[in-house]
Design brief:
Number of strands: 10
Number of helices: 10
Oligomer: single chain
Shape: globular
Largest sheet: 6 strands, parallel
Strand content: 5-15%
Radius of gyration: 20 Å
Structural class: alpha/beta
Length: 329
Amino acid sequence: MPNLQPPITTVEAAVSYHEKLSKLAPDVNFLMSLYLHPSLSPEIIGNAVRSKVIHGVKLYPAGVTTNSQNGVLDIEQYYPVFKAMEIHGLILNLHGEMQSSPPAAFAAADTELPVTVLNAERLFVPQLYKLHRAFPKLRIILEHVSSREGIAAVRQCGSTVAGTITAHHLWSTVDDWCGDVFSFCKPVAKTAEDRVALVRAVVGSSGKFFFGSDSAPHPVESKKGDGNTAAGCFTQPWCTSLVIGALEEGLRNGWIEDKEVTRQSIEGFLSSYGRTFYQLDQPSESFNSGIRLERRDEVIPNQIVSHNGTIKVIPFGRGKKVMSIVWRS
């Protein structure tokens, strides 16, 4: 995610960040993205493609999530950039929410529906359709889909539009995050009906939806300290287990059926569908590495502390029993 401080708005910054990450985890293929910003131009998009490490540009509507104060106010001003992305094959990653309305809008007599965090994604859907009509060959990802309307919109669009679903949205509703800052993310989790729709989309994806963790290891102070609570949940070490656990819960509750939960649907959602959309090579037949999930009574810890004890992060789902991941080769 490029919404750092400062944001990743240049090719040089993205390449430098890629080098830093690669030193920390040399076996990981990091797909970098740029923060959509007025400084971006069609020429910079060409340079981004030539860098070989930048695969997309992230659109944050101004003010809707963490470090998005420099985000987009007018989508159309970036049409030349989107055209260049369409030509060069870069992906447009969307944080699909409208800005919340000011208080005065809720007392206005007009018919325009005021925006809140609960309907911000639904009211963004027309923007997705608008972009898809204007640039039908531009690959677009509606990231961290959180609503039935978001699911339906992605399905309605053509093959160049896909959506990602997080582990925490598969487990959460508004009742969970409104009393727990460590379950608060943007877009916010919504109703039980929305959660059911997300679980069903995982096994009924057919390539239109794939996993995106959106994991954010905010320190405790960022979640509970002065100022606004940072939006984001930390799931990375347990995200696969959380996805599988959500499917098990869906089976128990009758949201999905056994015949839908196949190796193909799970492996597609967690791995191959995303690779295909990003046009990455699939593992060769000789690639023997993989994971197995086992029941070993593992429990997500209440907190994670850095080696020097200065940073504490509270994981999403703390105290929840999950299956353990075993790597095989």
